[in-house]
UniProtKB/TrEMBL annotation:
InterPro entries: DUF1145. The keyword Repeat does not apply. PANTHER family: INNER MEMBRANE PROTEIN, INNER MEMBRANE PROTEIN-RELATED. This is Membrane protein. The chain crosses the membrane at residues 6-27, 34-54.
Length: 88
């Protein structure tokens, strides 16, 4: 399970890399616009996940600053990793 979570985090990291590259060096045509929309949507959804999780479990689970921000970056895969760490 740990290897699959790491692989998924690497895939999401690659997606963020492509989205950030598009911000500084836009892709040609309508691809840039589509990637801008995807960037906003991904940031909004992961931000919502982070706010919901911290609102529901923030006082019950002690998390490091990196774990909180990793939810914003990696989404559900960070939550699975946090659950795996705190359930042991």
């Amino acid at each position: 399970m740990k290897a699959l979570i790491l692989l998924a985090k690497a895939a999401i990291g690659f997606v963020w890399l492509v989205l950030l590259v598009n911000i500084f060096y836009p892709f040609p045509g309508v691809a840039a616009m589509a990637l801008y929309i995807m960037t906003g949507f991904l940031l909004m959804m992961h931000g919502l996940q982070m706010l919901i999780f911290l609102g529901a479990f923030g006082d019950k689970i002690s998390m490091s600053r990196w774990e909180k921000w990793s939810i914003l970056i990696f989404g559900i895969f960070a939550l699975l990793d946090i659950r795996r760490k705190h359930m042991m």
